[in-house]
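User: quick one, fold this
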Amino acid sequence: MIRPATSEDASRIAEVHIAAWKAAYIHFIPQVVLDNLNHSQWEEKTRNHISEGAHFLLSEAEGVTAAYALWLPFPRSIDWPHKNLISSLYCHPDYFGQGHGTKLIRACARLAQKQEHTGMMIEVFKDNVRTLALYERLGGRQISEGTFTFEGKPYPDILLAFDDLDALASG
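Assistant:
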């Protein structure tokens, strides 16, 4: 089931976020960084985003949040082909490979369509090959490469565009 998040979901979203980072990024993010991810900080950040009207969507399995996505519209001045972005998409490792990411991407596509967008952007760490492959299977095309700086260290990332929201949303 996909549903919008409320402030009561902030703790579980933080839990999913940290567990996903520790499982998916272990091969390229230093262990000390992963060990220092702070649940309280992520929970507070999530709660603030929700109170400001951010679009968090949750994918649930048997009443438990298995994954989440954060979808954001962007100002028209940004030089991207589409002015909206899945800013975060994380799945708890207990639920990897069960389709939660795909369901959330499709739900974000429908949300983007409701706001009259025809395409959508997403970023992924370049070394996160499993997730990059998923985005490409769903129709994402690489637009550019850049870096994401976390804890003062830059990590290569890739910006992708989903150009056909009709196909993505209905798939």
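User: anything notable?
Assistant: DSSP finds six helices and seven strands in the chain.
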